[in-house]
Amino acid sequence: MDLKEISKEIRKKILKTTFNAHTCHIGSCLSCVEVLTFLYFKVMKVNPKKPWDENRDRFILSKGHAAAALYSVLTQKGFLTEKLLGTYCKNGGKLPGHSTYRCAPGVEVSTGSLGHGLPMANGVALAGKRDKKKYRVFVLMSDGECDEGSNWEAALFASHHKLDNLTVIIDYNKLQAFGKTNDVLNLEPLAQKWRDFGWEVKEVDGNDLNQLKKAFSKVPLKKGKPSLIVTHTIKGKGVSFMEGKLEWHYFNLDEEKYKKAIKELS
Amino acid sequence: MRNAFIETLIKLAEKDKSIYLLTGDLGFSVFETFAKRFPKRFLNCGVAEQNMMGTAAGLALSGKKPYVYSIIPFVTIRCLEQIKDDIAYQNLNVKIVGVGGGYSYGYLGATHHATEDIAMLRVLPNLKVFAPGDSVETEKLMIEAYKTKGPAYFRLTNVGGKTVHQKKDKIKIGEPFVFNKGKDGALIVNGVFLGIGKSLIEELKIEGYKFKLISLPTLKPINEESLWKELKDQKLIFSLEEHSLIGGMGTALAEILMDKGWKGTLKRIAAPDKFFPKVGKAEYIREKYHLTKEQIKEYILKIKKS
Questions:
Q1: CB–CB contact A120 B64 (8 Å)
Q2: Number of compact structural domains in chain A
Q3: Which of A12, A80, B62, B129 is close enough to B220 for a disulfide, judged by CB 3.0 to 4.6 Å?
Q4: What is the pLDDT of residue B243?
Q5: Which is it for strands A175-176 and A179-180: parallel, antiparallel or unpaired?
Q6: Cβ contacts (< 8 Å) between B51 and chain A: which residues?
Q7: β-strand partners of B99
Q8: CA–CA separation, B135 vs B8, rounded Å?
């Protein structure tokens, strides 16, 4: 299966999972599918048979509300069974609506409250440096999450300690919970802000696998600096009636819409 | 007490290379030795406590044993959600150490007072909470906690180097420590009131009353059965702590005693539910809030005689 096919499968899993569970955050899951696909199938050294191998690359989903996307990519990669994925947000199930520490193989940390992933990633990356380990740490953040002050504390720390084994990806779909990011709390110039904090930054179309390939071909982007890849994405990407629509942060799928969405992907 | 902490930590760190010390830019004249001896394991994280706490969680996720230090408000309620989500929820092996319990930083004002930390942290699952009263309790509980995986909070108080305990005293996590037996009532103390409680007992003896003195340096978990064994025959109990009346040791005692169906009287001597409206050193504030040894003695005698 090529990467395009894989990302299609992951989208279908996200839709099925959230449809069965009647849950929200579908748009937030769909915008980062190509990033997750590329990381798990091309970039990261991870092994579903040894999910906690101490030399594994670490993926930290800081935008924990996209948990269905993480569980779906982990299922596609063989970490989770389809059966386990089916317990998402079900009473007595194991997979909460926000990714939770070791709730399943490959889920590294608990997130859900925004602005927690990067500080924890700092600790993991620093420990790797001190122990002379080769593993890398990847953090996926949302754009709205950049409002949180803790991230800017963490951004200072990462560059101060030259954590070039740390890469942050911002899923910049331009929509946060209650409006456009730049109407709610202007982030621009976002890339420049991170550069000013000592990071090496690249900007790409985050729904274009070829552009992601170019961006990730040289991580770290610069030796001695933490890397940031700002991925410009579309909320709800892949389903025409969800694309660019704020309401798909909240809505869940009825049967008719679910079938329509799946049809578009088939 | 702060010296007992750092000396113990250095001893532990010499044997265990996974120990890290993180500070929010505080510890001048205290941490230099640690920093010199273990430069790779000393992290001044700057005045950025949310990141510091998250970084500690990340280090613990990677097998390290971080100790995170600052003045109490900055290492507790400033980053309370990081303590909840990153450390307690994930049940990670992070030890939080705060200095300045109660009114230790008296004249610096309420931003630096710490009279709500126990209440805020006692409700978090997995987190152990300690408020030692002298350097013996500090050292022994630190070693016990080091041997126990999981998160813990140490509330240190500026009580100086004078010890109340003897070196051989057995101090265990969750266990009350009984100093004196007595049938006229019980005093239960922690933190700064350990020393005060010890002399109060002597003075009350001169007045003709024999009080039982119990130190309770662990506020979570409390071994309820051990405590109940010591208290069930008492009719009058005083709890003494430099923490808000709401949510601290007195509240914890009330919860346990009520659950056990105890029929006696519990008097909670603690900080009032107020920000101190004036300026003053710790002793001055204690006097205004009727928390000095003499005032407490008078209060206890009044109740005994009524």
A1: no
A2: 1
A3: B129
A4: 98
A5: antiparallel
A6: 118-119, 122, 150, 153-154, 156-157
A7: B71, B156
A8: 10
* Nearest partner of B92 among B127, B129, B42, judged by Cα: B127
pLDDT number for residue B111: 94
- The low-confidence residues of chain B, meaning pLDDT below 50, are none
Q: What residue numbers bound the domain in which A105 lies?
A: 3-265
Q: What SS3 class is residue A34?
A: helix
Q: How many CB atoms lie within 10 A of CB A246?
A: 17
Give dist(CA A85, CA A91) in Å, integer. 13
Task: Band the pLDDT of A41: cuts 50, 70, 90.
Answer: very high
ipTM for the predicted complex comes to 0.96
A210-235 pLDDT, tens digit per residue, is 999 999 998 999 999 999 999 999 99
Q: Which residue of B has its CA nearest to A148?
A: B50
- Partners of B59 on chain A (C-beta within 8 Å) are 123-124, 126-127
- For the question of whether the overall pTM of this predicted structure is more than 0.90, the answer is yes
Instruction: Give CATH superfamily name and number for B2-156.
Output: Thiamin diphosphate (ThDP)-binding fold, Pyr/PP domains (3.40.50.970)
What is residue B158's predicted lDDT score, i.e. its pLDDT? 83
Q: Which residue of B has its CA nearest to A100?
A: B90
Would you call A131 and B62 a contact, using CB atoms and an 8 Å cutoff?
yes
Domain range list for chain B: 2-156, 177-305
Dist. CA A124–CA A131, nearest whole Å: 11
β-bridge mates for residue A58, sequence order: A137
How many whole angstroms separate alpha carbon B86 and alpha carbon B65? 14
Pairwise CB contact (< 8 Å): A127 & B54: no
* Domain of residue A139, CATH code: 3.40.50.970
Chain B positions in Cβ-Cβ contact with residue A111 (cut-off 8 Å):
85
Establish if B97 touches chain A: CB-CB under 8 angstroms. no
pLDDT of residue B306: 87
Cβ separation B60–A108 shorter than 8 A? no
> Can you name the residues that pair with B156 across neighbouring β-strands?
B99
Tens digits of per-residue pLDDT, A138-191?
A: 999 999 999 999 999 999 999 999 999 999 999 999 999 999 999 999 999 999
Interface test with chain A among B47, B51, B84, B89, by most A beta carbons within 10 Å: B51
CB contact under 8 A, A123 and B55: yes
Q: Are strands B128-130 and B177-180 parallel, antiparallel or unpaired?
A: unpaired
Domains B2-156 and B177-305 agree in fold:
yes
For the stretch A121-136, pLDDT in tens is 999 999 999 999 999 9
Which residues are paired to B239 by β-bridges?
A: B188, B268
Closest by alpha carbon to A79, among A101, A49, A40? Answer: A49
Pull the structure tokens for residue A217: 């071909």
Q: In what order do the strands lie in the sheet with B177-180?
A: B177-180, B212-215, B186-189, B236-244, B265-271
Which CATH number does B177-305 carry?
Answer: 3.40.50.920
